[in-house]
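Practice set, problem 2.
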Amino acid sequence: MGRPFYSHEQMSRALELHVRGVGLTQIRDRVSKGQASPSLRTIGYWIRRFRALSLQELRLDQTIEWHLLDTYGLPWEASRLILRLCRNGLPSKRRARWWWRLSVAKPELPDDVLLDMADTCVVYQHMSILGTGVPDWSKVWDQIRKDENGKDGTSVQYHCLPEKYALCEFPSEVVLPDWIGGSGFISITQTSDRISVICEQDPIPSGDIEDIKIVRGWYCIRSYSDKWPRIGGTKNLVVSTGDSVYILLQARDRKHLGEILGNTGITFSS
């Protein structure tokens, strides 16, 4: 006889799919991971366990209805967070609750980290209600409590954007060209005599462009707070967007950038 389940993550995902009305074969296909695919017999065993849960627990794994947020114990302010994070459709009530709780506990969490932590919390809750193991909640707490360098406290976190950037200065009356764009960070500042644009470097035509001053070779560091360090030894620009600060530094390459940041004690994720 095979094992009753292959992984807590697979069983957790299967529970969500079951509550949403997905059939046995489809559940098996959607939770399969290469050779670690549960059999239909195993999925059937899981479903029998799911059906033994209370209706109150099962309802938490139903998809949220945005106009009923307050009935799930979520404030209306949570709708903005949910809209930002729901990349693959609306989440379950249980998952939406964890998104909100974690964002309140540590507002500076990057979205990808928050999503991963919420996934872990959902799996842990499913382990508890199904009786399939003892979750280690201390791992989640440690992520909330520690900064990205592994130290206690609320130190500022930094993320190095993958693109290189350029600073472009246009006459104030110009219509901005189509090559200003991209999916990354863009800053446009207009004064009485010029328009300054910080944008991705790659889409900009090579060489000099008439009436446009272009300074290339900037790296962009995002700070997930309203604080940033003093960085000497190179030119730098700072742009605040309200919830984050973007620090642009001139460097020859990433190795040089690391040397510059090494003088500040900053480590960053790439």
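Problem 2, part (b): a different protein.
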Amino acid sequence: MAERLIFPDLDSLAQAAAEIVVTSAQAAIAARERFSIGLSGGSTPRPLYALLASPAYAPRIDWPNVHVFWGDERCVPPDHPDSNYRMARETLLDRVPLLPDNIHRMPGERDPEAGAGAYDAHLRSFFAADGEDVPRFDLLLLGMGGDAHTASLFPGTAALGETDRWVAANYVEKLGAWRLTLTPPALNAAAEIVVLVSGADKADALDAVLNSPTDPDRYPAQLLQPENGRLRWLVDRAAAARLSG
């Protein structure tokens, strides 16, 4: 069963998420001397990333043993204002002592199919080194849009039905744009998924995802069902307005 945690506002949600990241990082590094985390784009994780880079949190993580990945990326260069990588770099990556080789960004500037194939191959090589045949992220941070998309799995798009590839190039008709995204089997291989949802504009979608009959073509976030992991929804009061119980 997925866990639901409701917070008064985005700031308190971010603080709770920061504690989860710290705890997960400390446990993984103690066990295996490495912590793998997948980052989300969008506006909701910004305060979380800022907290993780702050004096209150940054010293609690052994950053040289952290490996950073992404759940999705816009098909733009890494210095583009829309780049998920750029947002994470400006708010977090440039402010903590991460090793450059431990930052594994999605190549959004490449041809979409080529970029997806390259990142898929990179993930397979990285996790194979640990004897894993799935992308077993220690922690995967995701968000959800007002249309119930997560990562770049949008309603009605082809990548929703992907069962073999870990990374797909997904064309989003309503945006008129390509995205690179982790696929459902890659997302659900994570040891832990934390979904951050903030804002009243997400309330209808969140209620539908959590309480409506399963229809992932319409509500892609319903695809989040870790096979052997933990799923937590961290939501603020505005996003939870339609939930009951």
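Answer key, part (b): The mean pLDDT is 97. The domain at 3-236 is CATH 3.40.50.1360 (Rossmann fold).
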